[in-house]
Amino acid sequence: MPYNIAMVSDFFFPQPGGIESHIYQLSTKLIDQGHKVIVITHAYEGRTGVRYLTNGLKVYHVPFLVMFRSATFPTVFSFFPIFRNIVLREAIEIVHGHGTMSSFTHEAILHARTMGLRAVFTDHSLFGFADAGSILTNKLLKFTLSDVDHVICVSHTCKENTVLRASLDPLMVSVIPNAVVAENFRPLSHPGYTADGTAQASGQHNPIPQQVLGPNDTITIVVISRLFYNKGTDLLIAAIPRIIALHPNVRFIIAGSGPKAIDLEQMLERNVLQDRVEMLGPVRHEEVRDVMVRGHIYLHPSLTEAFGTVIVEAASCGLYVVCTQVGGIPEVLPAHMTVFAKPEEDDLVAATGKAIAALRANKVRTEKFHDQVKMMYSWYDVAQRTERVYDGISGALSEADFYGFDAANASSWSASRGRAGVQSFALIDRLKRYYGCGIWAGKLFCLCVVIDYLLFILLEFVAPRENIDIARNWPKKMVNGEKNGEKNGRERSREMRRDTT
Amino acid sequence: MLTTQPRLRARRPSPTTVEYTVSTTPTPTVALRLLFGLTILLRLTLGIAALLLLYSKWALSPLATPIAESTTASAPALFTNEFIWYTIHHIHSSPLGELATELAERTPLVLLLPSALVVLYAIFLRMHTTESLLVLRGLGIQTSTSANTYLSTATTRFIPTEKIQDIFVNEAFKGFEVRYYLVVVVEGEEDVVVVFPSLLPRRQIVETVWRGVRGCLYEPEMSGKR
Q1: Is A501 within 8 Å of B176 when comparing Cβ atoms?
Q2: Cys-Cys crosslink for B192: which of A404, B109, B123, B183, Cβ 3.0 to 4.6 Å?
Q3: Do the two domains A4-179+380-470 and A182-377 of this chain adopt the same fold?
Q4: Where in chain A are the domains?
Q5: Is the CATH code 3.30.1390.10 the one for domain A182-377?
């Protein structure tokens, strides 16, 4: 059953980043599945109004004030009129918000529930519990997620974190990891892909020969990350001189920019390592592969990470991965592709040494990594799992199917749940959910929800539904029954006949 | 009741010419015509009342020169300056005029003058907006938007065919909503020309006009591609 889905986030192209590409890739794949997807984000400089991207993905760049790191100022209700207009004209059924730090997401989920739409939230990051900023963010998250149909997290660690932060029922949180476009991250020796995405015939049948490293061959270690504190740049600064001192034939390539870049450069100058460490500065996402294939080992010293897409990309490029054992990283790659280290200097040096030794002994078949990663991660798979979540919340799947048989039997596991497996839209039920948020916060949130509801009723008078034009869907081409029939049937049912003049 | 949602009317005087008019004028019925007549009467009354008040205020001020007795004695011939003064004097000294004088006496000038001006402006406001698009094959298109008041004429703009790069329907944010609109891209100009800019009719109208313009502006291709 095709849905009309609105992806809402403050973060979207042209700004680079993980959430941005996640939304884009997921949307593209969902469109391929026959759904209709639009993206609602705020206006970027030089990027305003309504735009179309590849595949007919429609992007609404809503003109709003940008406050901090491209997140908009939280104006709880001012977004509602325009959001309602977009949702009605596109006939949206499911609102899917992304990113904890995006106020657009929170507002959209609140308004969507008020309007009687299904809401899904995807969390992409880990947060602490102790500092003032986190407490505030967590309270806001708790507010929004008090009344949401389902939550998606990118890793199990992230799920644990989100469940604790927002006091959620773990059953309504799914884990759907990120993915990579494996075709864009192939190793140097890979024969490449033909236009239709399949590997070229020569590569398919003849296995790629193993690269043999001699004892004196240079091993290149690649680091690509934004140079921030939380990405572990300090750890890197401490570890590089020791690794270089221990292993004579090792070079480093470091790409990325950030506030810690100066510290890194100072370290290089102090130790006179300019000839062995190459600093590339910021690289664009499409150039990442070209940097990665120059190395043998990928070093990822991050201190916190919800998923770590970059290590999947590195493994896909055929690099042996050395990474810190934090956050969701241990879930990402199988053991034979990685060497784990504790997030401390000594252990990182030791782990890198282990990785270099393993490569020199030719014990690691890095040339096989690409095909293995390709089997593990694909956006198509992510889209299908997301689709299942949509099915579950809209009632297409039964509660037992979606949440498991145990959950279906225990009738009391979630208070104020309406029909089996589906959150009730009744205002009183919603208020009950919000009221539980805290002694004062609960009442404040209830007030917000009531005002939101009154605003909704006011808008129905001021801007009646029948005065809003229904937008035309992107015309889809008929697929000439070549691949799988089920997919084609779905597309055909959504086929929009293109009017000829 | 006096205005409707924007409605489309197409006129096709010849196969190569078409005019699309979008306006808020409702279909005229007898009742509506009577109502319009009434509004015109109301406007006249309001206008005369405002002018009378202003004149009374002026007559009260020390700067005013009293109207000469000679002109007020007997009715002079029609269509002379004296006759105008005679009429004004009579209205001013009538019971209605006295009421106006009294009112003018009580109202301070700072209040009277702006409100009278606002009323005078308001009675000239047009009730309906009419916007049109005239397409002439081989020549170009002309957009026109009716003026706000009855005092000025419609603004028109002619765009010759060779300057037209494209005509298409687009969507944009306008206030708290997203609207469809028809645009003409003009060669050598930074901004596009929006057709029906003040009414911004609904999608169906915009699409009809777009099809019509595309069909009429260019010669149908002989090769039968389309």
Answers
A1: no
A2: B183
A3: yes
A4: 4-179+380-470, 182-377
A5: no
Nearest beta carbon to residue B226 from set A48, A85, A501: A501
**B176 and A85: CB-CB below 8 Å?**
yes
Query: pLDDT, tens digit, for every residue of A67-109?
Result: 555 566 667 788 899 999 999 999 999 999 998 888 889 999 9
Element (DSSP H or E) covering residue A163: helix A156-166
The answer, yes or no, to whether ipTM is higher than 0.85 is: no
Chain A residue at shortest CA distance from B176: A82
CATH 3.40.50.2000 holds for A4-179+380-470: yes
What's the CA gap between A326 and A2, in Å, rounded? 38
- Do A463 and B177 count as a contact with CB atoms less than 8 A apart? yes
Nearest C-alpha of chain A: how many angstroms from B152?
A: 31
Q: Which residues pair with A50 in a beta bridge?
A: A60
Q: What is the pLDDT of residues A437-473, one digit of tens each?
A: 888 888 999 999 999 999 999 999 999 999 899 998 8
In a mutational test of the B interface, the residue from A58, A80, A85 whose CB has the highest number of chain B CBs within 10 Å is A85
Residues in chain B with CB shorter than 8 Å from the CB of A465 are none
Q: Containing H/E element for A153?
A: strand A150-153
Summarize pLDDT for A393-425 with one digit per residue, the tens: 887 887 777 777 665 555 544 544 444 445 678
